[in-house]
Specification:
By secondary structure, the protein is α/β, with parallel strands linked by helices. 36% of the residues lie in helices and 22% in strands. The chain has 11 helices and 17 strands. The strands form 2 sheets. Strands 1-2-11-10-9-8-7-6-3-4-5 form an 11-stranded mixed sheet. Strands 12, 13, 14, 15, 16 and 17 form a 6-stranded antiparallel sheet that branches. Strand 12 and strand 13 form a beta hairpin. The longest helix has 20 residues.
Length: 361
């Protein structure tokens, strides 16, 4: 039967190991390249991620040490290797998988997404020897007449020569039920373990392509595509009766309200300074003071306002002094002049995106 998970998603049988860790926020998102042999009309990648760049979560990666540091800050128990197509930069991807396994041990679970276009037996062997635990194939399913699709389908068969978990991962594209069924049957006959289905969503980069094809959002407040969730559920119901695969329908709500939130909470506990409050959403909330001369302001707060120095932190990169929220509220009422006080809330991620700023009178 199709069952609803505690994470606003739907499943048939058991969730893949990679998904079990991901929904709990325990997977590092390792983006090894934006390079890809395909150009799917529904690809959600931002323009800057379509380049040959590397990110560990939101952190730009310059060395393996950056990846290890990000995994430590998150308290990650595994990594999801994605792109682009990570196999487009195979040596780099293999190096990173080996480094993660060496740093965190064999129990650190690594899964990888790939088109299959480059999944020759030789290339797959390199991934397997690096320690990859799970591989997920996303062939050009909705363009079945292409030569590349034929190559991908043949390459997927190579993955079953290795002792790892093999599955598929595809978007739920309205109007494509027969193609999705075909892929499920194909995987099942090969002995795959699972098929993951993602609710299709609009993004800044795929919006025009999707609108031109007649797809519409379910509401003005949502990026999810009308009919995608229902089609995914239909596939799960069919798959439960007709295949032995496990299925997971990953919803837009899961990604936004659960997976990201859980990852932020794990990271916030590790990066929060003593004066920061970790909110229910995993953001950091604290007070700040802005002034053109931070050293002068710091001296005023410590020596005249008698604020304990351990409550204050000069953040020169952002041009502010950070402090507990209640201290900022009290100082805003007492300090005169051009000093500006705010309550801010920001993500605990590398880019520290500010999500709210409240000026104090």
């Amino acid at each position: 039967m199709v069952w609803e998970t505690p994470y606003f998603s739907y499943a048939v049988r058991e969730l893949p190991r990679g998904c079990q860790l991901c929904v709990r926020g325990e997977k590092l998102v390792l983006f090894t390249t934006g390079a890809c042999p395909r150009d799917c009309f529904y690809c959600p990648l931002s323009p800057w991620r379509r380049e040959d760049v590397v990110y560990a979560n939101e952190r730009p990666v310059k060395s393996v040490d950056d990846i290890i540091e990000e995994a430590n800050l998150q308290g990650a128990k595994g990594a999801g290797v994605t792109g682009g197509d990570p196999m487009a930069r195979l040596n780099r991807t293999v190096e990173y998988i080996k480094a993660l396994k060496e740093a965190f041990g064999e129990d650190f679970h690594v899964h990888l997404y790939t088109t299959g276009a480059l999944a020759t037996k030789k290339n797959l062997e390199k991934l397997y020897n690096a320690g990859l635990d799970e591989i997920r194939f996303h062939p050009d399913l909705f363009n079945p007449g292409s030569k590349l699709f034929e190559i991908e389908i043949e390459n997927i068969k190579n993955a079953f020569d290795f002792d790892w978990d093999v599955g598929g991962e595809i978007p739920s594209v309205p109007g494509q039920f027969e193609r999705m069924k075909w892929y499920a049957e194909f995987l099942d006959k090969l002995g795959a373990k699972f098929l993951n289905v993602n609710e299709l969503e609009f993004s800044e980069t795929n919006l025009r392509n999707l609108l031109d094809r007649g797809y519409r959002p379910i509401s003005d407040e949502s990026s999810a595509i009308k009919g995608s969730l229902e089609l995914g559920l239909k596939l799960l119901e069919w798959g439960e009766e007709n295949t032995s695969l496990s299925y997971h329908l990953c919803t837009a709500k899961l990604k936004d309200a659960v997976q990201l939130r859980n990852r932020l909470k794990r990271m916030a506990k590790n990066v929060a300074r003593p004066y920061m409050e970790v909110t229910e959403d995993g953001t950091l909330r604290f007070g700040i003071a802005e002034y053109e001369d931070l050293d002068e302001l710091y001296d005023l707060l410590v020596n005249e306002a008698e604020v304990p120095a351990e409550w204050l932190h000069i953040n020169r990169e952002k041009g502010r002094i950070e402090m507990p929220e209640d201290v900022a509220v009290e100082l805003a009422e007492a300090v005169e002049g051009d000093v500006r006080f705010f309550i801010v809330e920001e993500y605990p991620t590398f880019d520290r995106i500010e999500v709210e700023r409240i000026p104090l009178p």
